Amino acid sequence: MKKILSTIALGLIMPLIANAQLLKTTVTQGEIEGELFEGFAMYRAIPYAEAPVGNLRWKNPVPKAPWKGVYKAEKWGGRPWQQTDPNQNGNDIACSEDCLFLSVETPAKSASERLPVFVNIHGGGFATGSYSGTQESFVKEGIVYVSIEYRLGALGFMAHPELSKESRNGISGNYGIYDQICALNWIHDNIASFGGDPNNVTICGESAGGISVSILCASPLCKGLFQRAISESGSNFCPIINTTGMSAAMKLSKAAEATGSEFQKKMNAKNLKQMRSLSAESLIKNTTNENFWPVVDGIAITDDQYKLYELGQYNDVDVIAGYNSDEGSLFVHQMNLDMYRQAMKTQFGDWADKAMDAYPASTDQEALYAVQDIFRDQAFGYGTWAWCNLQTKTGKGKVYMYYFDQLSQNTLVKNTRGATHVAEMPFIYGWNWGAMTDTDTHMAQIMSQYWINFIKTGNPNADGLPFWTTYRQGEATVMNMHNGFSLTKAPNQKQMDFYESYFGAMRKQK
To answer: What CATH code is assigned to 326-510?
Structure first.
């Protein structure tokens, strides 16, 4: 009889436990309701802006209007149109031009708790990816997890003369960046309704998400919207260019308009009106060699970010920034010595000899490694290093730099020299792509805790963890993550010095 009564009592208590979660709240647009997921309140597909369709295609996001009744945030919204989804977690979600959503997963029991907030900006080269997914490992530590979606590819980043003429500022492009800023404004205004603290927000991204974080750190439109930033393998410190061919570099909006005009011709459209009548799918599926990427528009992205940081013109927040030892192995797979020598002359011109001295090769295998390392440093390494150097000189925010060099089977590419692009993410977020050794598992526990501590306080350190000091140029202050943790000087210094000189010369020519 006691067992039966206990079972009945448990049945009565469980709904009370579920109801203790913050499953219903009110935001700017009205009442909203989530659902219980893994013990926490989960709100999927919250629309932070109007659907960017019809005449709103290729326009800055319009904040979402109030809705009637209670909005049920129980299903993922459409992911932006894209050709592939390397993140896998969005494959069961249909693509849609109506994609400006964000999600909130909160451990809060009430709206008065003021918990730290983590905002995920997904990567994918500004062409792929999805905001869908959850992060219980952070949420169970008392962190409100938010993930935002933004427009990609031609729909998110196409500049065009007619679009610039439409704009009151005479510019075009960067719609995906303005989406991110719109989402951050929504979070600032509404996250307290989910128990989050709008004055304790960390933005984070990997790859294109890391580039986005870097961009937002320098954007005057983001002042006060976040207090901390984490960039994994992404930054925005290459010089401005007006040609294609250099990874991670941006053009001026006017220079990027030519790509939009050529794309219009490719789509057999006479004008912008016809471009807007084309299906979103056709625009994305017909994108091949076009480089739809953020541009320097003078508003959201005001100038060469290196120059902005030299002048102290940025959002001076606490930062974790780092990159991986073998990033390029995910992108460069074939190369021989002759191809290498020609590629160096083509890309670096008068600087080719200095480039080959920084990245020497005398065999086909060494040529492949050299070009992989060029990709690593040009797209990820140099910008991270420059960011840390400049902010420690002109800012007050704490800067922590890492170098991830753990060989693991829990990665997208096997049998590489070092840690490939994306290789750090399973160690931080607990994803499983392959087997983890005991050392890997121990490192993952520490790395995850570093991130959690930083999100909460702006400092990754805590009792029992290897001490991670703030970055100082030329000193052993970079956290080297290789079979454990040790503080070393910045890696690949010869290569960093080459790019500092090379990019410095490019800037003087502007």
So the answer is: 3.40.50.1820
Average pLDDT rounded to a whole number, residues 83-104: 82
Question: SS3 letters for 60-79?
Answer: CCCECCCCCCEEECCCCCCE
Do 456 and 196 form a contact (C-beta atoms < 8 A)?
no
Nearest of 432, 428, 430 to residue 448 by alpha carbon: 428
Q: What is the mean pLDDT of the chain?
A: 93
Which residues, 6 or more positions from 167, have their beta carbon under 8 angstroms from its beta carbon? Answer: none
| pLDDT the model gives residue 243 | 67
pTM score, whole prediction: 0.94
**Quick check: 94 pLDDT over 60?**
yes
Catalytic residue (choose from 132, 207, 231, 253):
207
- What are the tens digits of pLDDT across the range 229-241? 999 999 999 999 8
Q: Is the pLDDT at 247 greater than 70, yes or no?
A: no
33-315 shares its CATH topology with 326-510? yes
Q: Of residues 120 and 510, which shows the higher confidence score?
A: 120
Is residue 172 part of the annotated active site? The answer reads no
Residue 401: in which H helix or E strand, if any?
A: strand 399-404
Give the residue carrying structure tokens 């030892």: 325
User: What CATH fold (topology level) applies to the domain 33-315?
Assistant: Rossmann fold (3.40.50)
Distance CA 347, CA 450 (A): 39
State the pairing for strand pair 399-404/144-148.
Answer: unpaired
**Annotated domain spans of the chain:** 33-315, 326-510
Q: What is the DSSP string of 173-227?
A: --HHHHHHHHHHHHHHHHGGGGTEEEEEEEEEEETHHHHHHHHHHH-GGGTTS-S
Q: Is 310 an active-site residue?
A: no
Q: Check 327, 329, 408, 424 and give the catalytic one.
A: 327
HSE-CB for 102 with a 13 A CA cutoff = 28
